[in-house]
């Protein structure tokens, strides 16, 4: 069986299906087998033997491609990595056991160490902010935060701090603010800073940050890339000069993705374009249906005309994403507990949508950010970020939109 040639893998959807798959060699050349698996096998092996010790020596020395020990690399993991690199349009992909392990490795590869300054998006995923402040902070790095949607503030801070790294996200949680990646990349490039983009919410289907000037892309593959809510994984995609350090950090810290998860993720990845298409459609449908609803005060969706980053979203994303957040029309700043009660009542009344954290699954998931993703923040910090007690975030699945809307509407009736 022949390898699929590059010329057949020009388009994203085709790459999503075929890239990375190891359909090695010619079946006839495998005596006594006469078959070739069309799906890359799960290589559950902690160690790999070779023809002779000389070859082992060459593999360990990096003179010959191959595998030696599972913490250094595994063929099933490589298949998933190659598929991701093909979708990101460049760089080398490194798969990790979680998105956080991936972010840690990216920051290490960017040399965020003692004395370094990091400029991070104020809207950053909570654990990433805590990783920076607590773990890298303990190692002597200082993190400062900025509203990444305020480009002049970003420019000023980058000039003032000359940060080692700038960490942003394609689309923020839960207000779905959209970063102007190409403009921010110009700013960081001029200052010699490494731009790290957490592209979890966008996936390469909506945006490929490396093509827009970012240096390092990070994903939580737990979300859209695998897409079925059944595994935890992360990825870093980058080229020189970061790839050497990424391989080294992964080997020494030991956060490599496991082969079974890699196989599941590679399987999930094949339908990324189909899932994202439907999730974006569902999100757009829900956002427009809820916009005029009497029980809703405000809807956040980047494709909506009144979204503050609507212009940026049109320019830097090829779709507005699969998440929507909205405020219930019960906001009473004097009585946040009333808002919380309404939000809880709404969530408890959902019958189809699953009340659970995470996002990007085939199931529609709904959460109350103030007590879930943003729980650890002080009320004043939540208020500054706009994470109100009446705010609900929905990650759309691939169900029929009318079923999702019916469920949301009946739950709204009970608020
Ligand atoms: C979930 C998530 C992470 C962390 O990923 P894990 O796989 O849970 O470790 C990082 N960034 C964003 C934007 C996420 O949504």
Automatic annotation (TrEMBL):
Its cofactor is pyridoxal 5'-phosphate. Signal peptide: none annotated. One of its GO terms (molecular function) is cystathionine gamma-lyase activity. It catalyses: L-homocysteine + H2O = 2-oxobutanoate + hydrogen sulfide + NH4(+) + H(+); L-methionine + H2O = methanethiol + 2-oxobutanoate + NH4(+). Its EC number is 4.4.1.2. One of its GO terms (biological process) is transsulfuration. Keywords: Lyase, Pyridoxal phosphate. It comes from the Bacteria. Transmembrane segments: none annotated. GO terms for cellular component: cytoplasm. The modification N6-(pyridoxal phosphate)lysine is found at residue 223. CDD domains: CGS_like. The keyword Zinc does not apply. It is an enzyme of class 4 (lyase). Coiled coil: none annotated. Belongs to the trans-sulfuration enzymes family. This is homocysteine desulfhydrase. It comes from uncultured Rubrobacteraceae bacterium.
